[in-house]
Amino acid sequence: MKPEFIVAVLALSAITGVVEARSSSSGSGSNSVSGHVRKDGTYVAPHQRTNPNQTQRDNWTSKPNTNPYTGKDGTKDPQK
What we know:
Blueprint: H1 3-25, E1 30-33, E2 36-37, E3 43-44, E4 47-50
Antiparallel strand pairs: 1-4, 2-3
């Protein structure tokens, strides 16, 4: 790869990180969940989730949203 390409990708990554940091600091962003064990003994790995609110429409698992961390499309009906 050419050095110019690598520098451009790194610069774009740095800019994107700044934008994400700003958007997640607002009330509608995301937060980190630490790994933990549920009461039934199931281990839940650390992950990111949308901040809790009164709607299902902005959850990453709801259609037509996409999880920005995994790239997976939402499958749940936001009306339910």
